[in-house]
C-alpha cells in the first residue's frame, strides 16, 4: 500500500515493493470473469480485498465474479490472478475538454480527450471538474482536478501546473488525459489572457461492456495458462455468459490443467440445473464430453450459495452465487495451514449464509452419488464443504487431496530439476536428480502427505541405467521415475520426469 505524508519542503512516500511470484505455491487462484472495471484480457496479481477494490472496483449487480472474489478473500485466499473479460465491442467512456479562452498560462494543447482507464459502463456519468486559478497557493497558475465516479470515492489533484496536467492525471485510478490537435506554440514571454479563475465541468459517456463471447473466454484461458503461480482455477460468470458454449471453454481450461499437471479447475453447475437431479445429469453429460485425464482435473461443488448483497434491496438482501470462489478461498487457506495433502472439506464457508435450496438427506445422497462435492447447511453449524473428489472415474485417483498433493510435487520437482537440464548426461546427472527429488518427497513424507512408517514406504525414485539404457543417453534423453504413495488409499502414483535432448523438462503422471 502506498501512502504520502507532506511537510513544508519535505515529502515522504512509502511504497510497497512489488510482490514476487512463487511457482512452488499451490494456494494461489486464477479467476476469469467480469468485474466492474479494471484491465481487460490482462492477468493481474491481486493481494487482498483492498487491492481488488482499487484495481477492479466494487460489486456489480450484473456479474457474480465480484461476489466470488469477495468470498475467496473472506475464506482465507491470499493471492488471486484476475483476468477481466469484456465483449469485443467494449468501449471506454470519453469526453472532450476544450480549454477555450484561458491562454498563455502553459497549456500544451487547446483540447484534451478525457478517457476512462478501462472499458465499461462504470465510467459513464463520471464528472471531471478542472478549476483554474491565476494565482494559486504557490503564487503561480495552478489547476485543481476532481474526478467523481458514480459509486467510487472522489479523487482530487491540487497544485497542478497547466503544462503538467497530462502527467498529473496519469496518477488517477479512473481517467487519463490525451492531448488533441497540434501543440500550442511556446511563446518566450506569453502574457496570460482571459479570466483569472475558471471552472470546466466535463461528463464522460459512451462506455460499454457487452457480454464476452467464446473467443474472449478462450483468450483469457490461454493467458491464465501462462501464469505459473496459479493452482486453482474458477470462472464464475462462464455459464451465464456463454450458455451452451461454456463446455468448449471448460475443455480448454481442463486440457491446460492436464498438460501442466499442477492445477485444479473448480467447476460450477449452471444455474438452470440447480436441482439435484438436473445437476447430476449435467455432470454426467460433462463426463461424456471430456476425456478421463480432463475429468481428473475437475472438481464440481454444488449447490449454489446465498451471500450478503450490499447492492440488494431491503426485501432482497442476499445474492445467489456459484460456490467456486468461496471454495477456492477455503482450499487456499487450508493449503497454507495444513498442506495440499489435506482434503479441503469438513470446514465452514465464510461470507455465505445459506444454500439456494434446502436439501434433505435423499437429495444430498443424490448429489454425492452423481460425483459432485456437496455443500450442506446444518442448523447451528453453518455451511460446510462436504466432499473432496474430482470427476475421475478411477476411485484410486479421484481424490482432490491426492490431486493437489501431486500438483505440489510436480511444482517442486520442476523447481529442483530445471537447473539440471543442461548438465552432461551421465551418472552424475542421474544421481543429482535422485538426490534433489528425494529431498522434495522426504519433506512431503514428513508432513504426513505420504504413507508408511519409513520414507521407503512412501516414495521411490528411480533414475539409473535400468531405465536409462546407453541408446537413450546417446540421444540426450534422461528418464526419472518417481513413485509416491499418498497417505490413503495405498496405491502408488507414478510420475515420469523426462529431459529431452534440447533441454526441455517434462513431468507427467503415468
Description of the structure:
This protein has helices at 49-56, 65-74, 165-169, 214-225, 238-242, 246-260, 276-289, 292-296, 324-338, 361-369, 400-417, 427-446, 455-458, 470-474; strands at 3-7, 10-14, 29-33, 44-46, 80-84, 94-98, 111-116, 127-133, 142-148, 155-160, 175-180, 197-203, 232-234, 264-268, 298-302, 305-313, 316-321, 347-348, 354-355, 373-378, 382-386, 459-462, 478-484, 493-499, 505-509. A hairpin with a 2-residue loop joins strand 1 (3-7) and strand 2 (10-14). The protein starts with a strand and ends with a strand. Residues 1-9 have low confidence and may be disordered. Helix 11 runs antiparallel to helix 12 (427-446). It is α+β, with helices and mostly antiparallel strands and 510 residues long. It is built from 14 helices and 25 strands. It folds into three domains: 29-87 and 211-386, Rossmann fold, CATH 3.40.50; 94-203, Sandwich (Immunoglobulin-like), CATH 2.60.40; 417-509, Dihydrodipicolinate Reductase, domain 2 (2-Layer Sandwich). The strands form six sheets. A nine-stranded mixed beta sheet has the order 4-5-3-13-14-15-20-21-18, sandwiched between helices. It is globular, with a radius of gyration of 28 Å.
Notable traits:
single chain; 510 residues; alpha+beta; Rossmann fold; Immunoglobulin-like; Dihydrodipicolinate Reductase, domain 2; 3 domains; 9-stranded mixed sheet; 4-stranded antiparallel sheet; 14 helices; 26% strand; disordered N terminus
Amino acid at each position: 500500500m502506498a501512502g504520502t505524508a507532506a511537510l513544508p519542503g519535505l515529502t515522504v512516500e512509502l511504497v510497497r515493493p512489488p510482490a514476487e511470484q512463487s511457482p512452488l505455491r499451490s494456494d494461489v487462484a486464477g479467476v476469469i470473469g467480469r468485474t466492474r472495471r479494471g484491465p481487460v484480457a490482462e492477468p493481474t496479481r491481486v493481494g487482498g480485498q483492498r487491492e481488488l477494490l482499487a484495481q477492479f472496483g466494487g460489486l456489480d449487480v450484473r456479474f457474480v465474479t465480484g461476489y466470488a472474489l469477495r468470498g475467496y478473500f473472506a475464506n482465507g485466499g491470499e493471492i488471486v490472478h484476475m483476468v477481466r473479460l469484456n465483449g469485443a465491442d467494449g468501449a471506454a467512456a470519453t469526453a472532450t475538454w476544450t480549454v477555450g479562452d484561458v491562454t498563455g498560462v502553459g497549456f500544451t494543447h487547446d483540447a484534451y480527450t478525457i478517457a476512462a482507464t478501462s472499458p465499461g459502463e462504470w465510467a459513464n456519468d463520471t464528472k471531471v471538474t478542472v478549476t483554474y486559478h491565476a494565482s494559486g497557493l504557490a503564487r503561480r497558475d495552478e489547476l485543481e482536478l476532481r474526478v467523481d465516479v458514480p459509486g467510487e470515492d472522489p479523487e482530487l489533484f491540487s497544485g497542478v501546473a497547466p503544462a503538467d496536467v497530462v502527467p498529473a492525471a496519469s496518477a488517477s485510478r479512473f481517467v487519463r488525459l490525451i492531448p488533441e490537435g497540434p501543440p500550442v506554440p511556446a511563446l518566450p514571454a506569453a502574457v496570460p489572457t482571459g479570466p483569472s479563475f475558471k471552472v470546466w465541468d466535463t461528463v464522460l459517456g459512451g462506455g460499454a461492456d457487452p457480454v464476452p463471447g467464446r473467443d474472449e473466454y478462450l483468450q483469457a484461458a490461454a493467458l491464465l495458462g501462462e501464469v505459473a503461480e496459479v493452482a486453482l482455477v474458477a470462472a464464475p460468470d462462464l455459464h451465464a455468459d456463454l450458455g451452451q458454449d461454456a463446455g468448449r471453454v471448460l475443455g480448454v481450461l481442463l486440457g491446460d490443467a492436464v498438460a501442466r499437471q499442477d492445477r485444479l479447475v473448480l467447476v460450477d453447475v449452471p444455474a438452470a440445473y440447480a436441482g439435484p437431479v438436473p445437476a447430476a445429469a449435467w455432470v454426467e453429460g460433462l463426463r461424456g464430453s471430456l476425456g478421463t485425464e480432463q475429468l481428473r482435473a475437475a472438481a464440481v461443488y454444488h449447490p449454489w450459495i446465498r451471500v450478503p448483497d450490499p447492492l440488494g434491496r431491503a426485501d432482497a438482501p442476499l445474492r445467489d452465487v456459484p460456490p467456486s470462489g468461496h471454495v477456492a478461498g477455503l482450499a487456499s487457506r487450508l493449503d497454507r495451514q495444513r498442506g495440499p495433502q489435506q482434503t479441503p472439506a469438513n470446514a465452514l464457508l465464510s461470507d455465505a449464509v445459506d444454500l439456494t435450496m434446502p436439501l434433505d438427506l435423499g437429495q444430498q445422497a443424490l448429489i454425492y452419488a452423481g460425483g459432485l462435492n456437496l455443500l450442506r447447511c446444518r442448523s447451528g453449524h453453518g455451511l460446510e464443504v462436504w466432499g473432496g473428489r474430482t470427476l475421475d472415474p478411477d476411485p484410486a485417483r479421484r481424490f482432490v487431496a491426492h490431486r493437489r498433493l501431486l500438483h505440489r510435487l510436480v511444482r517442486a520437482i520442476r523447481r529442483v530439476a530445471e537447473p539440471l537440464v543442461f548438465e552432461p548426461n551421465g551418472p552424475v546427472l542421474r544421481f543429482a536428480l535422485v538426490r534433489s527429488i528425494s529431498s522434495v518427497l522426504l519433506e512431503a513424507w514428513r508432513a504426513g502427505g505420504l504413507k508408511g512408517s519409513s520414507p521407503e514406504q512412501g516414495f521411490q525414485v528411480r533414475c539409473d541405467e535400468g531405465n536409462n539404457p546407453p541408446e537413450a543417453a546417446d540421444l540426450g534423453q534422461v528418464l526419472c521415475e518417481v513413485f509416491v504413495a499418498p497417505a490413503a488409499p495405498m496405491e502408488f502414483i507414478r510420475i515420469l520426469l523426462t529431459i529431452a535432448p534440447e533441454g526441455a523438462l517434462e513431468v507427467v503422471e503415468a
